[in-house]
Design brief:
The structure holds 2 protein chains of 2 kinds. Chain A is built from 17 helices and 5 strands. Chain A is an alpha/beta fold. Chain B is of the alpha/beta class. Classes of the chains: A alpha/beta, B alpha/beta.
Amino acid sequence: MQTSSEIAAADSLSRDGADADVFGDLTGQQPVIAELRRAAGVAADVLSGRAGRAGRAAGGMAHAWLLTGPPGSGRSVAARAFAAALLCPAQGCGSCPSCHQVRAGTHADLMLVRPEGLSYGVKQTRELVLRAATSPTGGRWHVVVFEDADRATEAAANALLKAIEEPAPRTVWLLCAPSAEDLPPTIRSRCRLITLRTPSSAAVADVLIRRDGVAPQRALAAARAAQGHIGRARRLATDEEAARHREEVLRIPVAVTSLGPALAAAASLVKAAEEEAKSVTEGRDQPERDALRQAFGEGSTGKGVAKAVRGAAGALKDLDDRQKSRATRTKRDTLEVALLDLAWFYRDVLAVQFGAQVELSNAGREEDLRRLAGATTPESTVRRIEAIMACRERLAVSVAPLLAVEEMTLALLAP
Amino acid sequence: MHPSPPIAPDPSGVSLVVGDEELLVDRAVASLVAEAKAPGEAATPDQGIGGAADVRDVPAAGLGPGELAALVSPSLFGGAQAVVIRGIQDASRELAAALERYAVSAEPDMVLVLTHAGGAKGKALLTALTKNGIRVIRCAKISRADERMNFVRDEFRRLGRKADQGVVRTLIDAVGNDLSELAAACAQLSSDVTGAIDQPAVARYYRGRAEASGFSVADRTVEGRLGDALEQLRWALATGVAPVLITSALAQGVRSLGKVGAMPRGKSSEALAGQLGLPSWKIDRVRRQLNGWTPDGVADALHAVAEADAQVKGEGASAGYALERAIRRIVACRDRG
């Protein structure tokens, strides 16, 4: 039940849909695009009989791919573009019905798996493997895009092994993860690795200007602030609330001068994350619950309905657990974004302290940067960055968020 | 207010006991049934046919409407009968409907006692029954400290003994919050202690069994009482307090130190209460605990708590070790100041 809803929830691939080619959405990844294009060409040859199974392997097509790259570099965009290219008769024209269906997430031969909870379990994975073994209905390929494959538990990854080692002849697996090290070596060795690079600020700004119509000045500032994370840059450039929240986070380094402000800063960070999680989940929880109740026959009449509705209790509990897990993850993700913003700030402080000629992420806060750079030592700046990273680790092992963030803000204390 | 609630002279008909305080529910049911057995006089065990003795006690879960009809039908030999149906929040829809029907046209000579846990489950049946004007006895869970103290005082009074405030408090501190255990302790003391029941008497029977919570551990820790804190910790772990609750209490304790300590000393606790989101008595207590703490000490103590929280949540092998270590470190942070 879960996988199908997640698959259906796939959002559109592109904003305007008018890009000539399916790879047009991939920013600053020319080598990757070339490799995927070549693979799609070989895949088409395999289908038409011009290349045998041996040729398929030699010429650049594989049955399992692992797309890695830093967050926001476009792993899932690349995976979906590649899927579109495989499913399109013209290897990704971007305008045929097949490409449109991929873009809308409704293509019958494309399975999009997007773990929404804290982890992806072995039971769901087994269902996924079973469904992935079917033949493509459109006569081309059956593509499974597994976003955030690093969320798969160890048992789930083991359940995948056999499926990605020898998939059905026409099944192609596309796994996405931040880095190859996030997956067990047994999975890594069965996939062809594609590594996306962090797009430059200029490339990201260019996309914002071209596609979202953001003013150049603002686009560049957002691109620098997001450090290559395209989605985050877009959000900073177009969402006032996100930009305001970032400003608040960046006031922390100068505000934490003593115990009181540090504890207050931690409390407000965690509160903001909680509110964010609430706003994201609130709109979705109730409709999901209603839909499930309706599926179990609530509100209808007839023989056996009462019993069926009573049976919904277990399923509702299941749904509750999943929604809770999703809320926790949203909260953690929001905190994570704030922590990275802070880490980049101190990285800029360090750059100023060493006089390094690098692009500053927070060029707009030069005054704060210089003041902190002057008042503290490089050693203490490194220690602060380490405290931020330690806080991320604490959050990952489920330490109470407030406690972990307080520990961090207290470590940030500066004159 | 609670134990043996007064029962109306006419026990026949339907009574409803609502609440989830088991001891009180059992007592209410027992007294209703006793009334049914022998209206006006004390019940004697083992009465024969026609002697009004038939009591049946069944759970509502799994009971069908047909079985209900069989239970409440009058006896061939006449005389009063009592039926207890427990936990009607678990009644099936059909049984609920049958109960509602029965409540409006109850058999004479038939005492039907229903119990309901009082929660949201089966609320429709509860409102339907109470609307019919049947007798309702409430036995809500006792959660407040003063209610619990009243309970113990009433309990002693019921047993014909007297106990002052101090005795009651010592007893609750030592025995814990479970009403059945408290009632048993009262009965024990009443029967064993000759003369006045005073604090030494209580201490003789119930010593050192106090319930330890995360907060009692945290309070002793931030006050720097290492030995007491470790003792409380062992008690808490031995009585099944989850280690995560202890780390969260420690975090709260240290956090309050930081929050209150950062405020100007001259401000009154009432003025700070709203600002800090803590009750004013808590602020007063934290101010006393602040003795010996420095900002650096608080920061290091919080670091120790965070580390313990990570250990407790699976990073470490032993939660008990992680907690003891954290407590030692926190106490050391205080002394260092």
